[in-house]
Specification:
Elements (H helix, E strand, L loop, with lengths): L1 H19 L10 H17 L3 H17 L3 H9 L5 H17 L3 H15 L4 H17 L3 H17 L3 H17 L3 H17 L3 H11 L9 H14 L3 H8 L2 H4 L3 H8 L18 H14 L6
Helix pairs in contact: 1-2, 2-3, 3-4, 4-5, 5-6, 6-7, 7-8, 8-9, 9-10, 10-11, 10-12, 11-12, 12-13
GO biological process, one term: vesicle-mediated transport
Membrane topology: Peripheral membrane protein
Protein name: Gamma-soluble NSF attachment protein
Length: 303
């Protein structure tokens, strides 16, 4: 059975090569027919478990679509094969350039977004790059709502990758866009995310600055978000582990996007922090306890 499929595959390869040949009576290669033959060959190789040869056949099919200016069709074909994912992304990026040149930037941006989703499970760094490119295309077209959504995807992945300096920059850009489209509740959420990122960067000054600047946003002063961030910053500054823990485990932070929620629950105060001392007992018990503490302090002598 496998041998039969391999023979069939080679027959399709031969037919594909014949379609690409030119002569005195045939001046142009028939890329459509060649692509079809290479596709059939790839399926036969796959059925025979000859995966390297199947990959080569799929790539030949994609090259035919490229020559025939149907790049995105090439990408769509390649993306179905997980072994060919990097090649599929390359073809999608080429297709997007073609869309841009042909005056259809929205289609280009949507294709980049789709490519980001495809590559995200296996390559977070490339997904960040694709989401940022897609956001840039939408931003150039003044489609800020679409742009900021894609920036948000990139910011979350940067946090997951622990590229916190870049995440801080991306979050500020998100916040600026939300401010421009007057989506102030989302500005509040981005401020909270900024504070978490900056504190994980051990940059209290930057975290505090984000909150101070947000007081210029309508509705931020006195909001649940501002009260939580003031409390968090105070606890962090005073190394009050209990206070930081309470804020970071509050519903407001626990139910953020998962990557930011993880930042919240993993936040630690500098130097290990301190817990508030329990309240002293009333009356004579307090004096007795103090005396005991003093005895413990000097137990064993002064040397």
């Amino acid at each position: 059975m496998a041998a039969q499929k391999i023979n069939e595959a080679h027959e399709h390869i031969s037919k594909g090569e014949k379609c690409l040949k030119t002569s005195f009576t045939k001046w142009k290669p028939d890329f459509d027919s060649a692509a079809s033959e290479y596709s059939k060959a790839a399926v036969c190789f796959k059925n025979a478990k000859q995966y390297d040869q199947a990959k080569d056949a799929y790539l030949k099919e994609a090259e035919c679509h490229t020559e025939n200016k149907t790049l995105f069709h090439a990408a769509n074909r390649l993306q179905r094969e997980t072994l060919l994912m990097p090649e599929a992304i390359q073809y999608i990026e080429k297709a997007c350039m073609m869309y841009m040149e042909n005056g259809t930037p929205d289609t280009a941006a949507m294709a980049l977004d789709r490519a980001g989703k495809l590559i995200e499970p296996i390559n977070l760094e490339k997904a960040v790059d694709l989401y940022q490119k897609a956001a840039g295309v939408f931003e150039n077209e003044d489609r800020l709502r679409q742009a900021v959504e894609l920036l948000g995807k990139a910011s979350r992945l940067l946090v997951r990758l622990k590229r916190l300096d870049e995440a801080a920059v991306a979050l500020q850009k998100e916040k600026n866009m939300y401010k421009e489209i007057e989506n102030f509740p989302m500005c509040f959420k981005k401020t909270t995310a900024q504070v978490l990122v900056h504190l994980h960067r051990a940059d209290y000054v930057a975290a505090d600055k984000c909150v101070r600047e947000s007081y210029s946003l309508p509705g931020y002063s006195g909001s649940e978000d501002s009260v939580a961030m003031e409390t968090l910053l105070q606890g962090y500054d005073e190394q009050d582990e209990d206070q930081v823990f309470r804020v970071c485990n509050s519903p407001l932070l626990k139910y953020m996007d998962n990557d930011y929620a993880k930042l919240a629950i993993s936040l630690r105060v500098p130097g290990g922090g301190k817990k508030k001392a329990p309240a002293a007992p009333q009356g004579g018990a307090s004096g007795a306890q103090t005396a005991n503490d003093e005895e413990d302090e000097y137990e064993g002598g002064l040397c």
